[in-house]
Amino acid sequence: MQVRVQQEAFDLGAEAAAFASAQRDMGAVVTFTGIVRDGAQGGMVAMEIEHYPGMTQKALEAIAAEAVERWGLGDALVIHRLGRLGRDEMIMMVATAARHRKAAFEAAEFLMDYLKSRAPFWKKEIGADGAEWVAARDEDEAALTRW
Question: Domain ranges in the chain?
Fold first, then answer.
């Protein structure tokens, strides 16, 4: 299991290939990549992501460990970027490996839902007219109830 919180961009193809090639006796690898898109108000130029380093790392490691145990994963990878990111830049990646696809997909969805709503990151949308902190969304919180 690997969890990385980093400012620098990552190579999606290289990360996915390295993760998949390291798996043994796994029948499924699922990957998901989040991309910065225009904000709710439109006109977003960039997003700034802040965090408390020690707290964030521990929280992400704990949730990844929970996914590994709960779905019997062979492995999991979580990468989340921070700092200033422009539109269309990759913001995060989740990869899961399991003996069967259902477990790999469910674990990946669980991790994505957690990263979207509970991970200790603070996001600010920056536009031509100023900046605004991103508020929690009801639908993101509701997605967690299925887990």
Answer: 2-144
| Residue showing tokens 């669980």 | 110
Helix (H, G, I), strand (E, B) or coil at 28: strand
Regarding beta strands 90-98 and 75-81, do their DSSP bridges make them parallel or antiparallel, or are they unpaired?
antiparallel
Q: Beta strand 75-81 with 2-6: parallel, antiparallel or unpaired?
A: parallel
Element housing 35 (H / E): strand 28-35
Give mean pLDDT in consecutive 10-residue pieces for the chain, a chain of 147 residues: 97 98 97 88 88 94 98 98 96 98 98 93 91 85 83
Bridge partners (DSSP) of residue 103 are none
Query: Hey, what CATH topology would domain 2-144 get?
Result: Aldehyde Oxidoreductase; domain 3 (3.90.1170)
pLDDT of residue 40: 63
Q: How far is CA 4 from CA 27, 43, 96, 128, in A?
A: 25, 30, 15, 31
102 membership: H or E segment, kind and range:
helix 101-117
Contact 68, 102 (CB under 8 A): no
